[in-house]
Write a structure and sequence with these properties.
single chain; TATA-Binding Protein
Length: 112
Amino acid sequence: MASGFTGERRVHLEALAELLPAYGLVSRMVGAEDPVLWVWHPRTARQTIVFATPSNDGWQLLWSPGGQGAANDLERAAIALRRTLAVDEPDHSDNPDNSDHPDHPDHPGRSG
């Protein structure tokens, strides 16, 4: 039996799914009565399941290992998901000038 939150849960997961291609991620909604979002990174083949759940602070998105994001800040959640799934490749989505890349002239660890 579906919970009373099924419709709202689906709305939050669908909204996240719409953003994910811009972050290089692919997703598919699974589960008819209790939907979850299956998300994967096509290059690393890493994957996770995203759950949406109500909380005292509004709707939260949860994924493993230990990831979470607020449904009212889907872009930040998408960035965090990309970081989780793209462990093998650098993610500069929150640092557009790439100054955290070791070859960037402003990188703190760069010498000369």
